Amino acid sequence: MSETAKLELAGKTYELPIITGTENEKAIDIRSLRAETGYVTLDNGFMNTGSCQSGITFLNGEEGILRYRGYPIEQLAEQSRFLEVAYLLAYGELPTQAQFDEYLKQMSNFNNLPNGVQKIIEQFPNNSHPMGVISSTVCSLCSFYPEYLKMPLEAEDRERGIVQMMAQTKIIAASFYRQTINKKPVPSDPSLGYTGDFLNMMFDKEPEPEILKALDVLFMLHADHEQNCSASTVRVVGSSEANIFATVSGGINALWGQLHGGANQRVLEMLTKIRDAGGDYKMFINKAKDKSDPFRLMGFGHRVYKNFDPRAKIIKKACDVVLEKLNVQDPLLDIAKGLEEEARSDDYFVSRNLYPNVDFYSGIIYKALGIPTNMFTVMFVLGRLPGWLAQWKEMREDSSIKISRPRQIYVGHNKREYVPINNR
Ligand code: SDX
Question: Would residue 302 show up in a list of annotated catalytic residues for this protein?
Fold first, then answer.
């Protein structure tokens, strides 16, 4: 007999099925709730609501577990590489060499942008925020690839769209950066590998192997994170059968927010402010605790992780490696470590389970690599892109998929009669 939840409502008892995931997570299946009871549920910020069943990423916030298709992130960060993880997320298995070669070959069909797209990038003022440039330009691709407008997409078009997005998004990002430093774009060279190609397009020089590995690890750590704000946005936009470019652009825009991916830029700005104020991070800790002050300790806290963010631990270690390799002494890293130490012993943070998240240390590495602060969230886009594409693919392949359309509880005026303006 399958497990059920009993619900007593207005003198009637309802039995709702319980769904158990492969990691023993439990959910009350409320898909028939309104039809059976006339009631809906209310859940601000979807803190208790599952939007889908997914086989892509598993995370356990209490134990700090993060796995992509069952593989622990620690093993992938140590032994894999970003494009292999991107393949794993999209197709569910680690590729054989032949499969990986074919994947790279397909991707190399898109190692440049249509001339018109390059011209669109050139219209943006150099002081534009790169996130606005990349989300607009990604969406503009549908004008140059109208074949993706026919929906629902055939499977082969979906696969081509995935590798095309992986190839062209990094070119858009690097091309706009080159424009902001009044330099010509550097052509993409896929033979340098994803991370090497991107850094070469940015700085017109091939980076050291250790730097390549560090950025590859950063991208792997950012690659997916189940139903976070931007992945959920991709699923919502994609559920209406909007085209792939509009769908990814939606994810980019959701990530831009400072409570989400935009936090990595805010962390660097916060650390810089603390440094310029003489390094007194205790003052900022007190500001973060002061309810009358809107200031939050950026890079701290997480909706799911309540002990530690496993990614932050790996990134913190990578900071030391990268700074040492580049022979960079960055006082911001010492301030970040001091801030973390102070917060970890402060009851306000401990009682609310607030610890460094993925955004707290990543900016230190990006800064050491010479990435401008306003491009930090673009780095998050490039890392998260395979996760969005995998979530979109999984959703589009789900025959039971329905357009996302939440309900609400109305709390406005009851029925009233219209009053002409001269009687008001
Ligand atoms: C990412 O979801 C994902 O998986 C996201 C992500 C991914 O990979 O996709 O992991 C990436 O977005 C990481 C988060 C980056 N954002 C930040 O670093 C911004 C600062 N952090 C917060 O704003 C906050 O912690 C969130 C947004 C991350 C989580 O917010 P929640 O879960 O809605 O929690 P909340 O705002 O209700 O906070 C609970 C309490 C509140 O205090 P009380 O009302 O209980 O007194 O904790 C406090 C908050 O005021 N709080 C903070 C704080 N974060 C939470 N207080 C000070 N500084 C903070 N950073």
Answer: yes
- 315 within ligand 1 shell (Cβ under 6 A): no
Q: How far is the CA of 139 from the centre of ligand 1 (A)?
A: 29
Rg, C-alpha atoms of the chain: 23
CA 353 / ligand 1 centre spacing (Å): 10
β-bridge mates for residue 57, sequence order: 68
Q: 355-369: per-residue pLDDT in tens? A: 999 999 999 999 999
- pLDDT, tens digit (0-9, with 9 covering 90-100), for 187-203: 999 999 999 999 999 99
pTM of the model: 0.96
- How many domains does the chain fold into? 3
- Ligand 1 in contact with 260 (CB < 6 A)? yes
Side chain identity at residue 152, one-letter code: P
- Does the CA dihedral 166-167-168-174 come out positive or negative? positive
Q: Is 359 a catalytic residue?
A: yes
Considering the domain boundaries, does residue 387 fall inside one? yes
Looking up residue 101, the CATH number of its domain turns out to be 1.10.580.10
Q: For the chain, how many helices (H) and strands (E)?
A: 18, 6
Closest CA to 174 of 148, 137, 208: 137
For the cut 70, the answer to whether the pLDDT of residue 27 exceeds it is yes
How many angstroms separate the alpha carbon of residue 303 from the centre of ligand 1? 6
Q: Which of 369, 387, 405 is the last residue of a domain?
A: 369
The pick from 73, 260, 305 for probing ligand 1's pocket by mutation, whose C-beta has the most ligand atoms within 8 angstroms, reads 260
Cα distances from 313 to residues 3, 251, 317, in angstroms, run 38, 26, 7
CB 192 within 8 Å of CB 161: no
